[in-house]
Structures are given as C-alpha cells and as structure tokens.
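Q: Give me the 3D complex with zinc ion.
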Amino acid sequence: MLRKRKMATLIILSTTMLLTTSSANAVLVDSAAFFSGNGLPDSIINNCPYYEDQTAIDWGYSWYGSETRFRYDIIENADIDFYKATSKSEARIRVYASDYGDRVGWWGHTEPHAQDGSSRTEYDAWYYVDILYNDGKMDRENFSSANRLYNTLHEWGHALSLAHQTDDAISVMTQGQGTLTEPAFLDKSNLAYMY
Ligand SMILES: [Zn+2]
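A: Here is the predicted complex, encoded as structure tokens.
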C-alpha cells in the first residue's frame, strides 16, 4: 500500500516537472523537505513533551500553540503526539514570547540545542528546541490571527525538522506573512513520509 502511494506521488511529481521545466523551484518532498540532521529523534516526535513558558501564556500564544499541536497531531499516517511536560528540563520543545524588536528580522524563531544547552544547527541531531514568538514585531506589522497561527505552525514545523519550502509551494514552511491556518497537503504528506 505504502509503496503504491509513493509511486503515485513520484509519477505526479515528474509530470508536474515536465510541465514546468521553465521553473527552477520544484517543491521539496519527502526527505528533501527536512533538515539534513533530522532534528529531534523520531521516538520523541511520536510522544513529545513540550513546555509553555509564562511569557507565551501572558503574550497570548496558548491558543495558537494548542491549535498548532492539534493540527499536527491529527495528520493521517504520521505518528506525531505532544504532551505537557511536568518541567522545563523534561520538555523537548520549549516556547517563549516577547518583544525581541524589529532588527532581529523575524516574527518567530526556532533554536535547536544539545542537552547541555549549546547551540545546534540544521545539520546536527537535536536534544531540545526553543521556539520564540516575536509578539512585538507581529503587533507592529498588524498581524491578523491567521498570520499568527501561520507563524506558529511554521515554527513548530521547524521543530518537527521541516526546512523552508520554495516560494512556489503551498505550505506552512514558505517564508513570509502567510495565512494558512493548517498544514497544507504537501506538509502533511512530507510529515507522513518522515513519521
Ligand atoms: Zn522559518
């Protein structure tokens, strides 16, 4: 069954590529959609403890967070589950909000770490990730609640090891002020491939 579905995906993709030879921006599928270090271990993504800092609650990001976790949780054929950690140190995804200013250039940011707190890159395996919401910048740029949810889905997508998609893709992983309020077909299919 799985093999058949993958075959169908491949055929559709190659057809698309034939039709759009002028475009260099094919969308990223399967392993190409993920950071090469594969982020947090699969076994963690299957049952992932998260921690919501008081700042995320105070700045209004609890609803966006729970909506985001729910949207990833219900993806068919992807074993993604979250539960509230009893402590910050137990959590593998840790969420904060603040006004980080405009000069940082981001509305949201995902920072991977090793267990001792040192920084990791997309090429490494990770122990935990910090997600930062730049509420101040979003406010100043008049983000709608759809824009904020897109931003939350995008950062949690990084925490699930998804890399940026090409600008042509319909995906929560394209960069910019998006309005998708749930993972797109492409995101779901990539996450089902990985998890
Ligand atoms: Zn990003």
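A quick observation: The domain at 33-190 is CATH 3.40.390.10 (Collagenase (Catalytic Domain)).
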